[in-house]
Backbone:
């Protein structure tokens, strides 16, 4: 286990189709985050999990988006009825906050979504 | 006004130059400050981490935080072509529900041989 793994690396889909991305965090990390990054912008927060509980969702996460982390390990992000505006890099990150200390996140390489 | 402001550049310097990157922010609750480096088509990787105000040095990299001015900086000494990347500042108010990182837009740096 050498880092955060995301699959697929690149997804091209037609507008209106559903897509699902997977993230495998670092095994001892109990927090998992999803971010979205568009060209020329920094990553923007979408949602995060502590273990299997989804604790926060951004207003960017419309009802077409759903994320799960069923057993507190890997997570999936699904986008239904994709739109061209969903084209972006979807980044997953994990962290293990302990003793009130925050060490930042470890990011995966991302899934680049292109909606045509 | 966005919570975190960062000049997107691009910034082009010759090899060996000292590079200065910076961000300003508006949320006084931020107390954790990070710099991430992102190569093209890759995820961000943590470069420097600072808690509250002060300086931190790691090899050729120095991070500075001035909470009174809401201003953070990253200095790169003896810059190398391999430093060419986008540098993202990120900050957080802490762990728990406020632990989410807020990123700047990123500054694209090019170091010319």
Residues:
């Amino acid at each position: 286990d050498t880092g955060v793994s995301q699959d697929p690396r690149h997804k091209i889909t037609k507008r209106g189709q559903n897509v699902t991305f997977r993230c495998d965090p670092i095994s001892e990390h109990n927090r998992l985050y999803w971010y979205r990054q568009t060209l020329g912008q920094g990553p923007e927060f979408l949602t995060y999990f502590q273990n299997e509980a989804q604790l926060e969702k951004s207003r960017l996460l419309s009802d077409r988006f759903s994320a799960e982390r069923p057993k507190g390990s890997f997570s999936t992000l699904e986008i239904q009825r994709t739109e061209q505006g969903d084209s972006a890099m979807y980044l997953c990150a994990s962290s293990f906050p302990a003793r009130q200390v925050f060490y930042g996140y470890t990011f995966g390489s991302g899934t680049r979504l292109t909606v045509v | 006004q966005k919570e975190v402001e960062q000049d997107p550049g691009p910034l082009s310097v010759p090899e060996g130059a000292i590079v200065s990157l910076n961000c300003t922010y508006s949320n006084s609750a931020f107390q954790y400050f990070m710099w991430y480096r992102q190569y093209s088509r890759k995820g961000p990787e943590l470069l420097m981490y600072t808690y509250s105000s002060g300086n931190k040095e790691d090899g050729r990299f120095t991070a500075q935080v001035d909470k009174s001015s809401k201003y953070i900086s990253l200095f790169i000494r003896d810059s190398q072509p391999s430093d060419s990347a986008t540098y993202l500042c990120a900050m957080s108010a802490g762990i728990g529900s406020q632990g989410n990182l807020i990123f700047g837009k990123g500054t694209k740096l090019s170091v010319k041989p």
Remarks:
- Chain A touches chain B through 29 residues (CB under 8 Å).
- The mean pLDDT of chain A is 90.
- Chain A is about 0% helix and 50% strand.
- The longest strand of chain A covers residues 88-95.
